Amino acid sequence: MQKIFQNCYAMDRRCYEVYGLTEDILMEHAAGGIASYIRGEFPDGSRILIIAGIGNNGADGIVLARLLYMRYEITLVTPFGVKSHMAKLQLERVQKLGVVVGKEIDEQYDQMDVVVDALFGAGLDRELDRESRSLIERMNQLDGFKIACDIPSGIGADGRVLPLAFRADTTITMGAHKEALYLDEAKDFVGEIISVDLGVDRMLYEEESDTFVLDIDDMHLPSRTIQSTNKGSFGHATILSGEKEGASIMSGLAALRFGAGLATLVIHEKVSAPHCLMTSTVVPAGTTALAVGMGLGSSFDSEFIQRYILQSDLPLLLDADSFYSHELLSALEEKRRTIVLTPHPKEFASLWKITAGEEVTISQIQKNRFSFVRAFSQRYPSVVLLLKGANMLISYQNRVWINPLGSNKLSKGGSGDILSGLIVSLLAQGYDAVDAAIGGSLALALAAKSYEGASFAMLPTDLIDEIERLEKRISS
Questions:
Q1: Residue 174: how many CB atoms within 10 A of its CB?
Q2: Comparing C-alpha atoms, which of 171, 211, 166 is closest to residue 191?
Q3: Contacts for 129-134 with beta carbons within 8 Å, 24 or more apart?
């Protein structure tokens, strides 16, 4: 788990004012981090094209050219010239070495081993003009492994694409991870994200943060280590089964597969449930966590909802159809109850309308995902929200966790039902709401990553099978 920041300007200033470092020193370390990556990945003599902009991001690229010159075949292009003091200084230095500086990306550069984008960086706050769009399109057409310096050019300071961006295989960001790299809109452009230090250890550089990015090490599986146990030792997950019984069945199977001792479907009519799932017409007395909403429809009347859901104090997961129900969402007012919500953006729009009284579009949500989850958590500080997406966001009180490990394999009906089953399983086993949301989201992402079939072929049931192998995969 690593800290995330909206920007690094204040931390850079602290390097100058407190640690006595200079802009020049930070720039050397920024470029040095990229140079170290390239040296570790590409052999001597590789052809490297660096496209540098007019400001300090361009200056980073120019320093990189100096650091790699002689060991690699370096081409430096400054299509708009240079304007900042540091860019001019770095250009003067690199020219003294004999590096030839070009103004255009000619056809001779079509076959490069590495293409480095040091054009705009993290400060972009405007739509790209026609010339810049044309340049980035040309950069994207080039062969070679693509590296973005700090943030791919064309991605704004808020993570939005303006309106196109450099498609990096790897983004090497400076000082610390930045929120803009984790907006869903940016996911197709950033590639692997690596952060490099700027002259001091990260523990000295970074300030406090309320936002974090998760990784595999944050996955704590419900592994069984004690021998003297029984099914009651691992909780009882109960799932309401409504009009679309397949959704609740998949959730129930995922809950069992992820360690729950028992899983029951509450039914209003007979369903074709697998033998390992129990069925009941009421919430069983031994239930330790409830999941409601997956394929629910209008199967259960108000009296049932009041008695078994709203008047209960069991840990509660709400998903899918729950976000269209004023009655079910009244549970959010219960400040002492453990509640996890798992909407996708369309469902969140309905949730927001009911709870905040404001109409919002899916596009508005997607462009402002961090703002919306933070605002919701301020309104309901006792509720854990998991907003689904290319990068799942989990928020609670003043904190946000980003799960960046998801993939497009999960873009298929039923994946969310599996997620609900994983989370309610952990709730049933006694995990707190935040840990259950984090654990369930990571398990889902890692299960999808482990699937070896075609990118378009994965079924929700394949995820359940992959959950079976997680313990072995993570420990190996």
A1: 26
A2: 171
A3: 133/163, 133/164
Q: Which residue type does 470 have?
A: L
Per residue in 434-473, pLDDT tens? 999 999 999 999 999 999 999 899 999 999 999 999 988 8
Q: Which two tokens stand for residue 135?
A: 């340049």
Going from the C-alpha of 184 to that of each of 23, 363, 386, the distances in angstroms are 32, 11, 14
Interatomic CA distance for residues 449 and 198, integer angstroms = 32
- Measure Cα distances from 290 to 191, 266, 318, 409 in Å: 37, 10, 9, 27
- Beta-bridge partner residues of 386: 394
* Token reading at 172: 């090497």
Name the token pair of 48: 């490297």
Q: What is the dihedral of CA 452, 458, 463, 469, to 10 degrees?
A: -10
Q: 240 - beta bridge partners? A: 266
Strands (E), 296-365: 316-318, 339-341
Cα 206 from Cα 228, distance rounded (Å): 45
Q: Do residues 442 and 405 lie in contact, with contact meaning Cβ atoms separated by under 8 Å? A: yes
The rounded distance, in Å, linking the Cα atoms of 453 and 459 is 10
Q: Classify 318 as helix, strand or coil.
A: strand
**Cβ neighbours of residue 319 closer than 8 Å, sequence gap 6 or more:** 291, 292, 293, 294, 341, 342, 343, 347, 416, 417, 420
For the beta carbon of residue 286, count every other beta carbon within 10 angstroms. 13
Is the torsion defined by CA of 399, 430, 311, 341 positive or negative? positive
- Segment holding 174, helix H or strand E: strand 170-174
Are the C-beta atoms of residues 271 and 245 closer than 8 Å to each other? Answer: yes
The H or E element that residue 384 is part of is strand 383-387
In order, the DSSP letters of 59-116 are HHHHHHHHHHBTTBEEEEE-TT---SHHHHHHHHHHHHTT--EESS--GGGSEEEEEE
**Distance of alpha carbon 315 from alpha carbon 336, whole angstroms:** 10
Segment 421-443, tens digit of pLDDT = 999 999 999 999 999 999 999 99
pTM exceeds 0.85, yes or no: yes
Which contacts qualify for 23-26: CB closer than 8 Å, 24 or more apart? 23/56, 23/86, 24/86, 24/89, 25/199, 26/174, 26/175, 26/198, 26/199
Q: In what order do the strands lie in the sheet with 101-102?
A: 101-102, 73-77, 47-52, 111-118, 143-149, 170-174, 192-196
**With left for phi above 0 and alpha for psi between -120 and 50, is residue 259 left, alpha or beta?**
left
